[in-house]
UniProtKB/TrEMBL annotation:
InterPro entries registered for this protein in UniProt: aa-tRNA-synth_I_CS (IPR001412), aa-tRNA-synth_Ia (IPR002300), Leu-tRNA-ligase (IPR002302), Leu_tRNA-synth_edit (IPR025709), M/V/L/I-tRNA-synth_anticd-bd (IPR013155), Methionyl/Leucyl_tRNA_Synth (IPR015413), NUDIX_hydrolase-like_dom_sf (IPR015797), NUDIX_hydrolase_CS (IPR020084)
Record-given protein name: Leucine--tRNA ligase
Annotated residues for binding of ATP: 730
Naturally occurring in which organism (per UniProt): Candidatus Falkowbacteria bacterium CG11_big_fil_rev_8_21_14_0_20_39_10
GO cellular component: cytosol
Positions of the Nudix hydrolase domain: 380-517
Gene3D superfamilies: 3.10.20.590, HUPs, Isoleucyl-tRNA Synthetase, Domain 1, Valyl/Leucyl/Isoleucyl-tRNA synthetase, editing domain
Gene: leuS
Keywords, comma-separated and alphabetical: Aminoacyl-tRNA synthetase, ATP-binding, Cytoplasm, Hydrolase, Ligase, Nucleotide-binding, Protein biosynthesis
Length: 950
């Protein structure tokens, strides 16, 4: 048999598929549409990247699977070619972006055409063409009509290297996501989209969406819904009002200072003469830091302004500080600081020596033992002193053993009316043990509540507990009463043994607090030191405080969102011009639809960014001069261009009508094809591209163009491809070039290997040895063709294995478990290799099964059977005989260290080795064992696999 020449065969079929229009879709005449979409690429000069190629492959195999099932599949291709990436590279090589892109797109087109992807090349779109960006501009004008596009002055992120404004979402780890430069803050007049008007709608849609959970979680966090209250504080003496938003109105009584962002306009007005120099110096220092440095810096810094704010609850004066951990862009740029119950405020207060006042106490209810509250007993509230008493010489602590109840505890007793906790502690120690000479050391943070049954007093108690630590000065001791002796005895216990004692619940908690580092208590609990809120739970206290604020006109309950409006202005050249004309009489006026597109002028020079706050187009006289569409007077065009994320927020609509000059897309086609059935891409796009696509889709819905507001029925985030376990980078010299491996092993083998590496959502490590294994599998299949004989009938065992494989591979496709589907096909290949011959029916079924993974190989072998039409037009995806797979599978329990973590369907007779391998391949199990060592795998036939890890 001649050797399988993958280069020749893959090239042949890639060209013939295009020529025969195998993957070209008649969008108007479809009956069973399936829209498969990958994120259209930015055509970089480096060419196709393995990460892009993997995402494309994840979509392409599904598209081919659906086509084999008889669906009318549409898998389009286009170019996300505007933006700073392209412009920066053009600057680097001294070429205009237009000239550069004609070359890079040509290269990308060549690479993708060779890879055997099932793209419809007849509907290619390019975001940089006037035919495309006319409709990008049209979207802007429609949003402007609806009040969703507006211009305002704002303090924004400005990248000094890229010389343009950046959206919040384009800041990664405190730096520009494109060039890595720390952005500066600048006040500039910019155009925004009011995505905040959709905050709740964007949030409400998430639970209903079949999207990767990691993506939905990222969007939920980015939208950042917070329920709380707007509270009206004022600056003492001058009575200047200032509002803050807080999620914890229940802690207002605990506010001991007030903080303004260094950029807050009130700072200059309220700073005293004595503090002015320090404040101005601090503002300069804060301005030099990135937002990430300000929010993540462990050392909290700040300066006192000399002014005081009035707490509206109790009219208490609290000092006003400026601190860089408060950002002007979030909330109102001001906060009330409650150090007892906020980690950042705690750190700041500790450093500055500001009072920390506890107003929420942890709350525990006893749930085991004889101290569980009894429903038939009365319940009282009381204040308790829990006293940890240390020996005068040794590291030992006094322990009481209670005779009637069997309890073990520290010294404990009630705090009487008008008695301090310290006095109560001294009295109880003396009464219960006779020790007289006590040195009070400190109160242990925090106070807490517990609810328990005091069996010896025949009642339930809700006790507010104060933990006190005392040391005995000496052994001097007086006699205790016979009544106390009858209650308990005491002993000394070494500190390292205390944790082993069966202390009452309250004192287990007290001992933990005693030994841990003090920190803000940020959980829910019960209010203390809070006047009319005392004794209420956190939720009860929040409601009561909001009602009080609203009644007094001092605040109101409200919902706040982290999401900010989308700044779309860019002071660059390479983007669609903002379709606005500025008239001295009429103000900003949208360019009428009949005059769209506003064409980007072709510039050979003068297109470089100036960094002066205006785009390069401001200097192009022929572009800037315009007539006002309203009054006809002399006017100027807007010199900014739009963020290229707007281009990619709607491109999947345009694919349907790429050459339509009258409308953004054909509504009838939209009805048939939208929403997109499957979309795949990296999760790094969760809060940029994917959030913006949802926003634009909702806006188009509200314009009456579509009847849905989720653009993608299913979105799956793919993981990264690593090289030999490391992230790829040019500096490491480990970048994988798909074209290079396509020539080395063939694209069929490359794609199969990428999909076989592991679950689609996980990061996977690419090795040269592994991809060679995929090549050998492809060659192994090619060698099987001579076994397919017309007269042969397969053995029952072979037929059974085939039908089991059809079932599992079909199910795996539906769940996009491509790695396990490939594994099953490799098992079936081994069965065929052992068989002497293969029947034509089994062979055809097998070719259909492998076709999505190895399209060129499957097509070649299919045509060798005498078939005239492409396998992908054959609708030949096989079905399985239920009788042959009936009762052949079982549900196998998979445990990790004895705990149930997954249930997987396997063959009934599966052996120990295979069961262990299948269990370890499970996506759920891989998450649990990631970074852990598998010690052993225990197998109980027909029942379970227990994976022991450490």
């Amino acid at each position: 048999m001649k050797k399988y020449d993958f280069n020749k065969i893959e090239k042949k079929w890639a060209q013939k598929w295009v020529k025969d229009k195998v993957f070209t879709s008649d969008l108007a005449k479809v009956k069973n549409p399936y829209y498969a979409l990958f994120m259209f690429p930015y055509p970089s000069a480096e060419g196709l990247h393995i990460g892009n190629f993997y995402a494309f492959t994840c979509v392409d195999v599904m598209a081919k699977y659906r086509k084999l099932q008889g669906r009318d599949v549409f898998e389009p291709i286009g170019w996300d070619a505007f933006g700073i990436h392209s412009e920066n590279y053009a600057l680097q090589i001294g070429q205009t972006p237009m000239k550069m892109l004609s070359r890079t797109i040509k290269n990308f087109r060549k690479q993708l055409s060779s890879a055997g992807l099932g793209c419809d090349w007849t509907r290619e779109v390019d975001t940089t063409t006037p035919e495309y960006y006319k409709w990008t501009q049209w979207i802007f004008t429609k949003l402007l009509e609806k009040g969703l596009a507006f211009q305002k002055k704002a303090i924004l992120n400005f990248c000094p290297s890229c010389k343009t404004v950046l959206a919040d979402e384009q800041i990664e780890s405190g730096a520009c996501e494109r060039c890595g430069t720390a952005p500066e803050k600048k006040e500039m007049k910019q155009w925004f989209f009011k995505i905040t008007a959709f905050s709740q709608r964007l949030l409400d849609g998430l639970p209903k969406m079949d999207w990767s959970e990691i993506t939905k979680s990222a969007q939920k966090n980015w939208i950042g819904r917070s329920e709380g209250a707007m509270v009206k504080f004022s600056i003492a003496d001058c009575r200047l009002p200032i509002e803050i938003f807080t999620t914890r109105p229940d802690t207002l009584f605990g506010a001991t200072y007030f903080v303004l962002s260094p950029e807050h306009p009130l700072v200059a007005k309220i700073t005293t003469k004595e503090q002015k120099k320090q404040v101005e110096k601090y503002i300069r220092q804060a301005g030099a830091k990135s937002e990430l440095e300000r929010t993540e810096n462990k050392e909290k810094t700040g300066v006192f302004t000399g002014a005081y704010a009035l707490n509206p609850i109790n009219k208490e004066k609290i000092p006003v500080w400026i601190a860089d951990y408060v950002l002007m862009g979030y909330g109102t740029g001001a906060i009330m600081a409650v150090p007892a119950h906020d980690e950042r405020d705690w750190e700041f207060a500790k450093k500055q020596g500001i009072e920390i006042r506890q107003v929420v106490a942890p709350y525990w209810k006893v749930t085991t033992g004889n101290a569980v509250p009894k429903p038939n007993l009365p319940t009282i509230k009381r204040n308790n002193a829990d006293v940890i008493v240390k020996h005068w010489e040794k590291d030992e602590y006094l322990i009481l053993n209670w005779k009637e109840t069997g309890w073990t505890s520290f010294v404990v007793g009630g705090i009487e009316d008008n008695e301090s906790p310290e006095a109560a502690a001294a009295r109880e120690v003396r009464e219960e043990t006779g020790f007289k000479n006590i040195k009070f050391v400190k109160k242990i943070w925090p106070q807490f509540y517990n609810f328990a049954c005091a069996v010896h007093k025949n009642r339930n108690q809700i006790a507010r507990r104060t933990i006190l630590y005392v040391e005995l000065k000496n052994s001097e001791q007086e006699k205790i009463t016979s009544k106390e002796k009858a209650k308990h005895s005491f002993k000394w216990c070494p500190g390292h043994e205390i944790g082993k004692l069966d202390l009452i619940d309250a004192h287990k908690i007290a001992w933990n607090f005693f030994n841990q580092k003090e920190a803000a208590f940020i959980e829910a609990g019960v209010n203390i030191n809070s006047d009319f809120l005392d004794g209420l739970t956190t939720e009860e206290a929040k409601k009561k405080m909001i009602a009080w604020l609203e009644e007094k006109g001092l605040g109101k309950g409200t919902v706040n969102y982290r999401l900010r409006d989308w700044c779309i202005s860019r002071q660059r050249y390479w983007g669609p011009p903002v379709p606005i004309i500025h008239c001295p009489n009429c103000g900003p006026v949208a360019v009428p639809e009949k005059d769209l597109p506003v064409k980007l002028p072709e510039l050979d020079k003068g297109w470089e960014p100036a960094g002066d706050g205006r785009g390069p187009l401001a200097k192009v006289k022929g572009f800037m001069e315009a007539k006002c569409p309203k009054c006809g007077g002399e006017a100027e065009r807007e010199p900014d261009v739009m963020d290229n994320f707007l281009d990619s927020a709607w491109y999947f609509f345009r694919y349907l009508s790429h050459d339509n000059k009258k409308e953004i897309f054909d509504k009838k086609r939209g009805k048939k094809w939208l929403p997109v059935d499957l979309y795949v891409g990296g999760n790094e796009h969760a809060v940029l591209h994917l959030m913006y696509t949802r926003f634009i889709t909702m806006a188009l819905h509200d314009l009456g163009l579509i009847d849905f507001d989720n653009p993608f029925k299913r979105f799956r985030a793919n993981g990264m491809i690593l090289k030999d376990g490391a992230k790829m980078s040019k500096s490491k010299g480990n970048v994988i070039n798909p074209e290079e491996y396509g020539k080395k092993v063939g694209y069929d083998a490359l794609k199969t290997y990428l999909l076989f590496l592991g679950p689609m959502s996980e990061n996977r490590s690419f090795t040269d040895q592994g991809v060679q294994g995929a090549r050998r599998w492809v060659e192994k299949i090619y060698k099987l063709k001579d076994k397919a004989l017309k007269s042969h009938k397969d053995s029952p065992e072979v037929i059974k294995k085939l039908h089991q494989t059809i079932r599992v591979v079909t199910e795996d496709f539906e769940d996009q478990k491509y790695n396990t589907a490939v594994a099953r096909l490799m098992e079936l290949t081994n069965v065929f290799s052992v068989a002497k011959q293969i029947s034509p029916d089994s062979w055809q079924k097998f070719l259909a099964l492998i076709a999505p993974f190895t399209p060129a190989l499957a097509e070649e072998l299919w045509r060798e059977l005498g078939e005239k039409n492409s396998i992908f037009n054959s609708k030949s995806w096989p079905s399985y005989d239920k009788k042959l797979v009936k009762d052949e599978t079982i549900n196998l329990v998979v445990q990790i260290n004895g705990k149930l973590r997954d249930t997987i369907e396997v063959e009934a007779g599966i052996g120990e080795e295979e069961a262990g391998e299948v269990a370890l391949r499970s996506e759920k199990i891989q998450k649990w064992i990631k970074g852990k060592k598998v010690v052993k795998v225990i197998f109980i036939k027909g029942k379970l696999v227990n994976i022991v890890i450490k």
